[in-house]
Write a structure and sequence with these properties.
about 300 residues; mainly alpha; about 0% strand
Length: about 300
């Protein structure tokens, strides 16, 4: 495997790891008294601080954005990042995590289609085989409950999948901007959008003392979630500099394995045999993409 390709694989698998624990943070912060919009707003603040330190103090990067790209960047950051993360947050809270993951990861099917339509990405036989294998694995890993139980959470999960797929495609259109700059712009936009939304819809939390009752443990968890948010999106954005939307989105499916692991660690959920079999299929499809999917 070439060094660049290996680096891309490691970045995307790292992103899957960080995304895998994000739903745990969402549940923990809600239990700690942080309403959905406010927890995301605070998470964006700490993620922005991480991005700011990385860019200006570690890499010492100068930011230059062409005027012609401003509108596309605005669309990408507002809808592909800020609002998609908000929909993900509500999805995790309004439906079972297994249902959310099953529906959310339909973006692995949506992204290649959008990539084929808008980016002219080729879908070769290996990609098609891996897509089918991954979709089978999704059923084995997270057999969804009755459709009637999905309700609002299911609809939100599907919307989050569309938003995630859209972000991946738009990110490829903005490939001239490195991951560090995109993360800074993403989180800054997220702060602006969620500050407005949280103040409008969750004003009681700020003006009637709710924020004063947040414990030190919850604040520490919020900081960790911000760091996790930065690392998840940064490694994903950086990883897609080395892979097509088709192959990269499939590699990110390895998050499902991390999801099973974290569910066991935090909630004591023991995966069934079908889940273990689905995990093996995910590994196989990911291996095919890594070794053959870009050929």
């Amino acid at each position: 495997m070439k060094n660049g390709k290996l680096k891309g694989v490691l970045l995307l698998i790292s992103s899957a790891f960080f995304f895998g624990i994000m739903s745990i943070f969402i549940r923990l912060l809600r239990g700690g008294g942080l309403p959905p919009m406010s927890q995301l707003f605070l998470r964006y603040i700490f993620a922005f601080i991480c991005a700011f330190i990385y860019i200006f103090f570690i890499q010492r990067t100068k930011i230059k954005i062409a005027k012609k790209d401003v509108f596309l960047i605005l669309i990408t950051t507002v809808f592909g990042y800020a609002l998609t993360n908000l929909v993900i947050t509500y999805s995790v809270l309004y439906t079972q995590i297994s249902n959310f993951l099953f529906l959310f990861y339909s973006y692995a099917i949506i992204a290649p289609i959008l990539g084929f339509i808008f980016l002219k990405d080729k879908i070769n036989k290996i990609n098609v085989f891996s897509l089918v294998l991954s979709f089978v694995a999704l059923f084995l890993l997270f057999q969804p409950n009755s459709v009637s139980t999905w309700k609002l959470g299911g609809v939100l999960s599907i919307l989050s999948a569309i938003g995630q797929a859209g972000y991946l495609i738009l990110r490829k259109k903005l490939k001239q901007y490195p991951a560090n700059i995109m993360m800074l712009v993403n989180t800054l936009t997220g702060i602006l959008v969620l500050s407005i939304l949280s103040l409008i819809f969750e004003n009681n939390f700020y003006f009637k003392g709710g924020i004063m009752h947040i414990t030190a443990k919850t604040w520490f968890t919020t900081i960790l979630s911000g760091l996790d948010n930065f690392l998840a999106w940064f490694t994903m954005t950086k990883g897609f500099e080395y892979f097509k939307a088709t192959s990269g989105s499939l590699i990110l499916l390895s998050e499902l394995l991390f999801g099973i692991f974290f569910a066991f660690i935090f909630f004591g959920e023991i995966p069934a045999f079908s889940a273990l079999l689905g995990g093996v299929l995910i590994l196989i499809s990911t291996a095919f993409v890594i070794l053959k999917g870009e050929s």
